[in-house]
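Quarterly update from the structural biology core.
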Amino acid sequence: MRRRRLVFGAMVLVSGVLLGVALEGDGPSEATPAAPPAVTAKRPKPDADTVAARRRRALARLATHVEGATRALAVTVVDCRGAAAAGADVTVIGADGAALANGQADAGGAFTARVPEADAVSVVASLGPHEGGAAASSDAAVRVDVCPGASVEGRVVDRRGRPVSDATVTLGDGLDVAVTDEAGEFVLTDLDLTGERIVATAEAASGELALTRLEPFEVRRVELVLETGRRLLGVVLDPAGEPVAYATLTARDFADQEVARARSDRLGRFWLKEVPFTPVTVVADDGQGGVGQLYVEADAVRDDLIVTLQPAGRLMVDYQGAYTGSFDVIALVDGLGDRPGKVTSLRGPGDVVVLPAPRKYWVVYGEDNTPCGEVLLTPGQVATVRCGAPREGRIIGRVVDAAGRPLANVGVWLRAPDGLADNRATDGAGRFAFALATPRTLPADVIVAVPGRDYLPTRRRNVPLAPGETTDLGDLRLDAVDDFPGLGSANPFGGIGAQIETTEDGIRLGRIVRGGPLDVAGVQAGEVVIAIGEATSGFLPALDAVRLLRGAPGSAITLRLRKADGSTREVSVERSVIDVESAGWVN
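Predicted structure, tokenized:
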């Protein structure tokens, strides 16, 4: 009974309060005014840690709120350096495009969500200006890569500190590019944090600055000072492709004047500064007999130069007479459009000059550039050019078949500049010899042929016919027609997939067969083969080159190539059966 009265009293009290509120606007009430409500203290605002903890709990509840059979998906978020991307925002999206879970990665870059057992889902993570994504099917774990990025800003000035407008500024691999404003200012963003070098170029000037490691969200302030001229960056490699440390690099113009000098670092890298905006040749010398050179066209600002060293050739002049002046050595560089360029000078007879090889060189002397001789230098060769007075020069050799047996009564012809020519027949041992008087070293052609169609002819080019010197060609091999790949032989043969023609110092590659060995190796039409295996192709005619280039399908052959810019490289290709009609040509 007492409980009912208490409940009823409470109801009356509530009704009275509600009634008082309802009648408050109708006019003054004669009821006794209610006591003012007690003042309640405000709840303090939660701190940031409390808010973050509540958010994590809410997100965790959301991440596990998936109906039906579920699986745990462990997400790991890393930045562009592979480190944990703490605090990255993570969203898991279902097959229907709806968000199944979202949250933040913890200090270790980890985030766990409950997702449907059978459905494929995708995960998107973001950190700063960059985001990444990944797909997860039945896997229990997925990794997402994000890169937070950094900014590099600054200004470009000249030597006097004046701002340079309209200068091009590149960062890293050149994908991030900016142009300076009227105040010389620029801003670049490196999203992947890979920039190690920043370069600015303007008309007839360039500048560069190495960057220490960029940190996520960093804003780096720099200033670049432009120097007169351009810059050339690159690396020096040995014939095996390994970097060459502390090699000497020089840039030389067509007058053979040195215009810039540098040394490669311990990783073979070099930086030539203030190079004129004219054609130059970059020459590398390791100081141990290795020399390489590379032609760089006018106006090019390059950061991808590769100078490959070759064993140097050495050239000496032997003059018969009283001349004591200097000799000019001129290179015939087919890769530069058949334009001869002055290389260097010899102080006088007996002087030795180190030159890149293989190359064909002219030697002239005196005010009227009297010819002294021509010679093809091969890597590591020591050659002597003789001139001054007529003397007898000799060329000898032997003709053999494919089995190495000597061939008697074979016709051998010699042709050289200045109208020199002769012919001989081999003796019973297959030997032949020519002796002709000449006042200077000349490049001769020696042709060997057998009447009829039993044997294919052969030839040697650039054979030195030098006054007072004997050149021994050794054995010259004749192939039987029926045994030569692709002619009389019925057996399939392998080739490299290109048309070829002879040049001054090698075999030029013409059209390339689409999908053939050379095309697969990335070789371009116009490159010159300067060596086929161990044979220097500057001495070989096209037919002899074909004999070396063809072989059994699947067999490998190594070629040394010279590109149009003068750089050299080695490629190994696997011969294959070539069907031009079905494959067609690349060019």
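The mean pLDDT is 82.
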